[in-house]
Specification:
The chain is mostly helical. The protein has three domains: about 180 residues; about 100 residues, Orthogonal Bundle (Phosphatidylinositol 3-kinase, Chain A), CATH 1.10.555; about 150 residues, Phosphatidylinositol 3-kinase, Chain A (Orthogonal Bundle), CATH 1.10.555. The chain is about 70% helix and about 0% strand. Helix 9 crosses helix 11, helix 12 runs parallel beside helix 18 and helix 16 packs across helix 19. The two termini are about 85 Å apart.
Length: about 550
């Protein structure tokens, strides 16, 4: 192939290769741009989610807006003292209900907004993850396959150029052997002129000997010594020595969103796979299975229980308002941040005891409540067990109301308002024939037992430990000072055990009393089972076994 024809074909092929490589590079660049846009959208939604979450968890509810309530003094001076007292109590009751409804509406709206943003973030994070995956796959193909193929083709063209050039030189040398020999003689003669010191005759005889030794064919032999492949390898080796080798594929652009898809689904604002907060019970159990496979509950729960029992020299449970009085939010957040810095895998009982302190039972109790409320799924799974729990309470309340109606027919001193005693006075549901000690009917105990056995094993163990703790908190000698009954403790623990998935504020408000009643009944059922030896008492033993 003539050199000119080869040059034209090689130039066209070179332009074609450059155009294809440029298009592929632009495709990778475009995918990177999409990834950046999706990431920016995720970050925007994440900040919005954080703001709503902070308002939901930390902003106090507004004061009651029940300005329409009529004060007792406006009902006229002619009312009797008893009527004025009744109106005063009625207005206070109305204010309380209005405040609760307002708070429930605000909480529901906040939760709804937060959940909407959370869903949007989940969708955006899904798009970002897909875009990132497409980009990395395309980039890997470009850098590991297409770009090397492009460079290899350029190298092939260069080797072919050297080969064609060598062939052209050989062809020229074959046609002009005599002239080539003369050119070689002239070259060698000029090269050796400076070193020659003999006479003219000697030089002529030396030149004649040189001409005799350098016969035609020397140029083709010199051309035959050319090796385009070896020359290319030498050139590439020199390039690597000066510029360095091409970096190996390292996996592409890493995931840059500070929360993962699992974090978003679980409601975790901070991506810390080693955190004990905003996780599910099953997830926590999986993370500790390799280190402590025999512990049936999350170790962190046992650490916090130890902090509660050891607080104030072991007398913390007798403090007035235990579990009801909470520390400052900043103080609790500081403890959580300190524990997150340690991490679940490295955390020990001593880390929790040190973070909480030995004289602050209220902080230890708040840490337990916050941990349970932060669980991505309630201890009693909402999707499978919430409705059944509420149904049990409603069924028992209906049976109690029927018993109260029967008693009212035979006793004029019965309560005139017709409300079931359990939901009028408290959460304790009792009927004639209730079991001694627990105050639960045999039918109710059977239902609670079946409900408990249907829960995941880790949920069963958590409820048993909480029931043991509640029994110690509500022990007769401690109730005299801490003023905490089983109903009071159930009020503060219920949000971490049962969660209503409805966003209707009226339904949430209506079900709250049933949730509290169910938690109290479950604690009583477990306590009765433990007292009768049907269920082991394990809290202190389990706490002593973990480090």
């Amino acid at each position: 192939m003539p050199l000119l024809e080869f040059y034209q074909a090689a130039s066209a092929r070179h332009r074609e290769l450059d155009k294809g490589a440029l298009l592929k590079e632009k495709e990778v660049t475009g995918l990177r741009s999409v990834v950046r846009k999706e990431l920016a959208q995720c970050e925007k939604l994440l900040e919005q989610w954080k703001k709503l979450k902070a308002e939901e968890e930390g902003t106090p509810l507004p004061p009651s807006a029940s300005s329409g309530a009529t004060p007792a003094s406006s009902h006229g001076s002619g009312n009797k003292e008893g009527g004025a007292l009744f109106l005063s109590k009625f207005n206070k009751f109305a204010d309380k209900i209005s405040s609760q409804v307002t708070a429930a509406v605000r909480t529901a709206e906040m939760g709804s907004s937060c959940s909407v943003v959370q869903e949007k973030l989940l969708t955006a994070a899904s798009r970002y993850t897909e875009a990132l995956s497409r980009c990395n796959v395309r980039e890997e193909a470009f850098l590991t396959q297409e770009l090397p193929a492009y460079l290899n083709e350029l190298q092939r063209i260069e080797v072919q150029r050297l080969e064609v050039t060598a062939q052209a030189m050989a062809a020229w040398g074959a046609l002009h052997e005599e002239r080539a020999a003369m050119e070689f003689d002239r070259y060698y003669a000029s090269a050796g002129a400076g070193a020659a010191s003999g006479s003219t005759s000697d030089s002529s005889s030396a030149g004649g000997a040189a001409a005799a030794s350098r016969h035609p064919g020397a140029l083709p032999r010199a051309i035959a010594l050319l090796d385009p492949h070896e020359d290319m390898v030498s050139e590439l080796n020199e390039l690597v020595c000066t510029q360095g080798a091409a970096p190996a594929w390292s996996g592409g652009t890493p995931y840059a969103l500070p929360v993962s898809m699992e974090d978003i689904r679980a409601g975790r604002l901070k991506s810390n796979a080693n955190s004990v907060f905003h996780r599910s019970l099953g997830d926590l159990m999986d993370s500790q299975r390799s280190s402590t496979p025999s512990v049936p509950v999350p170790r962190f729960m046992l650490y916090v229980l130890a902090a509660i029992l050891l607080a104030n020299g072991g007398a913390g449970l007798a403090q007035e308002g235990v579990f009801r009085i909470s520390p400052a939010k900043a103080e609790l957040d500081a403890v959580k941040a300190r524990l997150d810095a340690v991490g679940l895998q490295a955390m020990s009982k001593g880390d929790v005891l040190t973070a909480v302190g030995k004289d602050n039972v209220f902080l230890a109790c708040a840490l337990l409540k916050d941990w349970m409320r932060s669980l991505s799924e309630a201890v009693i799974p909402s999707a499978t067990h919430y409705a059944a729990a509420i149904a049990i309470v409603k069924k028992e309340a209906a049976a109690e109301a029927a018993a109260a109606a029967a008693a009212a027919a035979s006793s004029p001193s019965s309560s005139p308002d017709g409300a079931p005693p359990s939901l009028r006075r408290g959460t304790t549901l009792t009927r004639p024939g209730a079991g001694a000690g627990a105050g639960l009917s045999p039918e109710l105990s059977s239902q609670l037992g079946s409900f408990l056995s249907s829960l995941p094993m880790v949920s069963q163990r958590v409820l048993q430990l909480l029931a043991e703790l509640v029994r110690e908190v509500t022990a007769e000698e401690r109730q005299k000072t801490n003023k905490m009954t089983i109903d009071n403790v159930s009020i503060v623990l219920a949000p971490g055990l049962l969660r209503n998935q409805s966003e209707d504020p009226l339904e949430m408000l209506a079900n709250s009393k049933f949730e509290i009643a169910f938690v109290a009944m479950m604690f009583k059922h477990i306590a009765a089972q433990q007292q009768q030896g049907r269920m082991p008492v394990t809290m202190h033993a389990m706490i002593n076994e973990v480090n």
